[in-house]
Amino acid sequence: MENLTNQQIIDARLDDWRKLAQALHARFLTDDFVTGLRFVTVVAEAAEAAGHHPDVTLTYPLVDLKLISHDVGSITQRDVDLARQISEIAREQGISAEPTAVTQFELALDTADLADVGPFWAAVLTGSVDALTADEVRDATGRVPSLWFQGTEAHEIPRQRFHVDLWVPHDVADERIAAAVAAGGRVVDDEQAPSFVVLADPEGNKVCVCTILDR
After folding, report:
1. Residue 178: phi, psi to the nearest 5?
2. Contact predicate 200/185, CB 8 Å
3. Which tens digits make up the pLDDT trace of 23-36?
4. Phi, psi of 61 (to 5 degrees)
């Protein structure tokens, strides 16, 4: 299957869904557990028929879904097709979506030696060095956020170089940044906007607010 570009995904006009770092995400407001379970059951039947399965989180008031073609590690047409089918199921059941509420939280660690530190973080976060793939530690069960490694110059121990990446829908990034600034933060670097904007809290702790635009 052909990997779809970010622009192709936007042009697909999946109104209920947003692409964040790697996958398509959606949130459906079911209001109660029984409605959510009924919705998830029909989604599961559709996914089984399609031979393609979303990640599903069912809680009392809502259902979160994530779609990605795991065999290629990207979004393909089958994800788009299943996303449309899931949205249609929601409409048939009178369930509304809240696409601007989806987010993805990642940790990043600057390092000059991925081969040296990567296995440690894979082992401590997931219990297995096998969770390290390329430049990222990813827990397939979703217990911990993804940790990715950004190449940098060598530095002396114990200097620590963690930063937070917060992926938000591209159409709410400006609103989220404005809210953070109004709450006492400041913009540190917006040269790469709308791809990402670096913010800092009043004590200087930084976060990158990321979108799929211009990537």
Report:
1. -60, -40
2. yes
3. 999 999 999 999 99
4. -100, -5
